[in-house]
């Protein structure tokens, strides 16, 4: 069997040109080379094919009529339907296909431009891309200003989205209904995957040449159902009805091997010399491409997701012995590799199939990147000048080892020369300091699947430890601490984060506090060895196209109108322009409009909740303006402290009941505890017992509170099931206040905090992650901070371990109800584990330390919202005006300048 990586069954890669003779002809058409240059090259091409090419015209639709023609063509040919049996889903498909046609034309031009200009490119490797829906995003990002249909006067223009909405209306369809037909591309767990999606949007918008690389999971993150208050996971088979946004490249098949053994020439014992890995199991990687459009540019980048397929090789020995069924079965095992996204967020589950996924993806991706580089015929030393590979967390760390293997085993480059190339190419983003999330692989599992890679890791470690030993002689303790191999029981493990650091030239954290923490805690030894300059910060951001323009059209219309940017919406490309909104904070008319937008979005959320609740309203829709909508939506995790939130809700409920018991009137209770809806949403990892119990508690509290006739609608609790990007787009614009209340030092950055602020919601939060920088940008008078600081966490945890945990009266009152069955009549002890974790097991997440200040801050929130609404609205306006820093466009500029050293490649 041929060693992996030496050949592909088909060496054609879309976006590249196989025949150099084609280059000039394409170049002229697509990049506008000088005519004389073209003439010289054109003459090398036979007249016949030249004429054919010149006649050939692929064009984008550029007005309503052309869109409609394209739409009808797709209905009748692509879908083989007629307009008479075209339902909403078919219309969604035809609209998407029409838009994709335009995108693909620009995609081709972008890729041709890259081939001819050959600048340095970025490769963003992420096991997760949480893209959400594509259609509305494509409509919004599409280059604006079309000529309107019918009597369009000269100089008139209309935004693409509006034009298509009108066209669809004429054809008998409602755009919003079509948008709802699209399933979410939910190939991610939460923040990390959504960050990758926002970065792709910003890189296209900023004309940065990038290819994203990931896996095309058949099943994305599971769909969450709530049954009797419990989370039930159901498979997310998002491809049931096909996917009009992807382009299958069936003609490209990259072989990837696993297991087997290492073969070396007779007498050669050095693992540093070229060695041949003879793989045991072999599968094929087939790419699917997703065009990623930028906003108001014709740059369209590529997101390439690999799918695993069986090889066409067949075990004839088995076949001939009559074991046909088993020989087919083995083939089918290949498909398991990309079947399923692992549903853990910030938690390592060291499963063999996960490692297989990772290597499959890294091998296919590196093969693609190396192949593309080799076409340029540049010397290998120029590889880091042409290629920047960003590792999104440690999941793609095998790519470091795979490139080293390609260079020494296949390209026969000397070890140190190869390692210099590797190091100049990679950079690594760390996403957490939590021990349980740090990736480690047992040596035996790893060595069996990837025997040659294990040798290479040992050699990397050997040279690395040699350098360390030179700088810090005889410090055995230091050497064992910093080693890539952890001498742990029951077995030694590879520390993937350490490998990523050693293999990269830059390591970044994702918010200032987090980037400081990694330097002083988990990577402190590496700072001691390398110095601090290898470790930098790039604070996360979000794309304002999706998280303002797309999810909150009313607010973005109000903003663009106010800034006089109705047509071009320049602020969406330069978010700090929003500071101009500060001129309007005292404008009462503007305040009124601002509040009306929030109210409309709250109505939209109210209806969404009604839909989820079988058509019954939980929220009183008549009182929305004086109801505080308090939201916590994110993955359910003890460190994110949804338990503290729900305990706070219970405290409020008990206090209200007490007032009633002591004879207070409804109005008197309302004065102290004005109308509030607590909204929760988020998925728990399927095997995470405590997170699932927290979901059950929230639903159990909702059950009691919502049907309490005394309380009426002064307090409602809602758990929104199946939180995902599309749900976020409805929930976030509706929030008055949202909760980002992680134990200080545990949330690396958070990105939903930024989304809420961008939509005019205020924040209650701990001094953690990007909350700190948000405070700096919007002003501390516009955010509700509380709780212990990260520098005190260690000591507090230590105290809990050795002394009794101090439970305040407030917390005591609430915890008591948990164990007497107020919220679990059938099983009184159901919520005991939550009580235990705080009272008995050392309260690792410091709920007891922060609870009273949390309650006090909630009280301040109520007071501000209900007793001085104008002040509240001003805070909201100030927040949006100063959220500009958190655009992912700013992140991408920082990555491009300080890590990748790449320049934009602007069209024209
Ligand atoms: C933004 C986002 C997240 C991240 O939320 P955090 O509060 O930062 O953890 C998770 N899930 C979805 C669907 C998101 O859009």
UniProtKB/TrEMBL annotation:
<protein>
    <recommendedName>
        <fullName>Alpha-1,4 glucan phosphorylase</fullName>
        <ecNumber>2.4.1.1</ecNumber>
    </recommendedName>
</protein>
<keyword id="KW-0808">Transferase</keyword>
<dbReference type="Pfam" id="PF00343">
    <property type="entry name" value="Phosphorylase"/>
</dbReference>
<comment type="similarity">
    <text>Belongs to the glycogen phosphorylase family.</text>
</comment>
<dbReference type="InterPro" id="IPR035090">
    <property type="entry name" value="Pyridoxal_P_attach_site"/>
</dbReference>
<keyword id="KW-0663">Pyridoxal phosphate</keyword>
<dbReference type="GO" id="GO:0030170">
    <property type="term" value="F:pyridoxal phosphate binding"/>
</dbReference>
<dbReference type="GO" id="GO:0008184">
    <property type="term" value="F:glycogen phosphorylase activity"/>
</dbReference>
<feature type="modified residue" description="N6-(pyridoxal phosphate)lysine">
    <location>
        <position position="755"/>
    </location>
</feature>
<keyword id="KW-0328">Glycosyltransferase</keyword>
<dbReference type="GO" id="GO:0005737">
    <property type="term" value="C:cytoplasm"/>
</dbReference>
<keyword id="KW-0119">Carbohydrate metabolism</keyword>
<dbReference type="GO" id="GO:0005980">
    <property type="term" value="P:glycogen catabolic process"/>
</dbReference>
<dbReference type="InterPro" id="IPR011833">
    <property type="entry name" value="Glycg_phsphrylas"/>
</dbReference>
<keyword id="KW-0963">Cytoplasm</keyword>
<dbReference type="InterPro" id="IPR000811">
    <property type="entry name" value="Glyco_trans_35"/>
</dbReference>
<keyword id="KW-0021">Allosteric enzyme</keyword>
<comment type="function">
    <text>Allosteric enzyme that catalyzes the rate-limiting step in glycogen catabolism, the phosphorolytic cleavage of glycogen to produce glucose-1-phosphate, and plays a central role in maintaining cellular and organismal glucose homeostasis.</text>
</comment>
């Amino acid at each position: 069997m041929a060693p992996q990586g030496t050949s592909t069954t088909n060496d054609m890669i879309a976006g590249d040109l196989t025949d150099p003779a084609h280059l000039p002809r394409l170049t002229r058409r697509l990049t506008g080379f000088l005519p004389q240059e073209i003439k010289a090259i054109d003459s090398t091409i036979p007249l016949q094919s030249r004429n054919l090419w010149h006649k050939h015209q692929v064009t984008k639709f550029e007005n309503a009529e052309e869109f409609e023609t394209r739409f009808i063509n797709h209905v009748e040919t692509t879908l083989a339907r007629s307009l008479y049996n075209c339902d909403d889903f078919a219309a969604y498909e035809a609209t998407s296909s029409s838009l994709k046609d335009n995108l693909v034309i620009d995609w081709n031009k972008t890729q041709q431009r890259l081939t001819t200009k050959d600048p340095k490119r970025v490769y963003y490797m992420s096991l997760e891309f949480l893209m959400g829906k594509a259609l509305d995003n494509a409509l919004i990002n599409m280059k604006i200003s079309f000529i309107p249909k019918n009597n369009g006067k000269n100089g008139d223009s209309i935004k693409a989205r509006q034009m298509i909405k009108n066209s669809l209306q004429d054809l008998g369809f409602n755009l919003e209904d079509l948008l709802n037909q699209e399933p979410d591309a939910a190939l991610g767990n939460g923040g990390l995957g959504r960050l990758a999606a926002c970065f792709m949007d910003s890189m296209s918008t900023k004309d940065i040449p990038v290819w994203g690389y990931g896996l095309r999971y058949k099943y994305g993150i599971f769909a969450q159902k709530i049954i009797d208050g419990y989370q039930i996971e159901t498979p997310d088979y998002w491809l049931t009805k096909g996917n009009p946004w992807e382009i299958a490249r069936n003609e490209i098949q990259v072989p990837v091997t696993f297991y087997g053994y290492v073969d070396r020439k007779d007498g050669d014992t050095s693992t540093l010399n070229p060695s041949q890995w003879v793989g045991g199991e072999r599968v094929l990687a087939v790419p699917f491409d997703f065009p990623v459009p930028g906003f108001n540019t014709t740059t369209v980048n590529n997101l390439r997701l690999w799918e695993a397929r069986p090889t066409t090789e067949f075990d004839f020995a088995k076949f001939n012995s009559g074991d046909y069924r088993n020989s087919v079965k083995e083939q089918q095992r290949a498909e398991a590799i990309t079947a399923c996204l692992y549903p853990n967020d910030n938690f390592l589950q060291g499963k063999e199939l996960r490692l297989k996924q990772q290597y499959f993806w890294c091998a296919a991706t590196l093969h693609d990147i190396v192949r593309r580089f080799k076409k340029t015929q540049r010397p290998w030393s120029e590889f880091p000048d042409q290629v920047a590979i960003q590792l999104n967390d440690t999941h793609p760390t095998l790519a470091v080892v795979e490139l080293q293997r390609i260079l020494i085993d296949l390209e026969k480059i000397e070890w140190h020369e190869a390692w210099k190339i590797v190091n100049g190419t990679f950079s690594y983003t760390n996403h957490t300091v939590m021990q349980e999330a740090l990736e480690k692989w047992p040596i035996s599992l790893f060595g069996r699947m990837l025997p040659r890679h294990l040798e290479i890791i040992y050699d990397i470690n050997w040279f690395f430890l040699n350098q360390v030993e030179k700088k810090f002689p005889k410090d055995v303790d230091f050497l064992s601490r910093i080693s890539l191999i952890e001498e742990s029981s029951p077995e030694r493990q590879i520390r993937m984060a350490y490998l990523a650091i050693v293999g990269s030239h830059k390591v970044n954290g994702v918010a200032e506090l987090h980037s400081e923490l990694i330097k002083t805690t988990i990577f402190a030894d590496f700072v001691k060895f390398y110095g601090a300059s290898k470790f930098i910060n790039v604070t996360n951001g979000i794309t304002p196209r999706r998280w303002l323009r797309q999810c909150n059209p009313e607010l973005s219309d109000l903003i663009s109108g106010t800034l006089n940017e109705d047509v071009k919406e320049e602020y969406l490309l330069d978010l700090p322009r929003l500071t101009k909104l500060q001129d309007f904070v005292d404008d009462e008319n503007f305040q009124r409009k601002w509040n009306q937008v929030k109210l409309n979005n709250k109505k939209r959320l109210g209806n969404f909740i009604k839909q989820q609740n079988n058509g019954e309203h939980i929220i009183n829709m008549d009182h929305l303006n004086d109801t505080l909508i308090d939201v916590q939506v994110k993955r359910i995790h003890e460190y994110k402290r949804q338990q503290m939130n729900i305990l706070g809700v219970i405290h409020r409920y008990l206090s209200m009941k007490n007032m009633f018991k002591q004879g207070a009137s409804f109005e008197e209770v309302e004065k102290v505890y004005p109308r509030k809806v607590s909204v929760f949403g988020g998925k728990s990892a399927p095997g995470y017992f405590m997170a699932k119990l927290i979901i059950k508690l929230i639903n159990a509290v909702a059950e009691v509170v919502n049907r309490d006739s005394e309380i009426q609608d002064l307090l409602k609790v809602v758990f929104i099931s199946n939180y995902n990007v599309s749900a976020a787009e409805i929930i976030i614009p509706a929030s008055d206040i949202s909760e980002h209340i992680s134990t200080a030092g545990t949330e690396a950055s958070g990105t939903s905090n930024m989304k809420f602020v961008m939509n005019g919601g205020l924040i209650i939060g701990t001094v953690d992650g990007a909350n700190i920088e948000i405070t700096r940008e919007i002003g501390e008078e516009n955010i509700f901070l509380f709780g212990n600081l990260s520098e005190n966490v260690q000591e507090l945890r230590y105290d809990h371990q050795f002394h009794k945990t101090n439970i305040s009266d407030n917390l005591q009152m609430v915890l008591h109800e948990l164990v007497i069955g107020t919220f679990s009549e059938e099983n009184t002890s159901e919520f005991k584990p939550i009580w235990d974790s705080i009272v008995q097991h050392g309260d690792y997440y410091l709920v007891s330390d922060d609870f009273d200040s949390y309650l006090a801050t909630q009280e301040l929130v109520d007071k501000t919202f209900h007793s001085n609404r104008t002040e509240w609205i001003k805070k909201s306006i100030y927040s949006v005006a100063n959220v500009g820093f958190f655009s992912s466009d700013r992140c991408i500029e920082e990555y491009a300048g300080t890590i990748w050293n790449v320049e934009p490649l602007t069209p024209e």
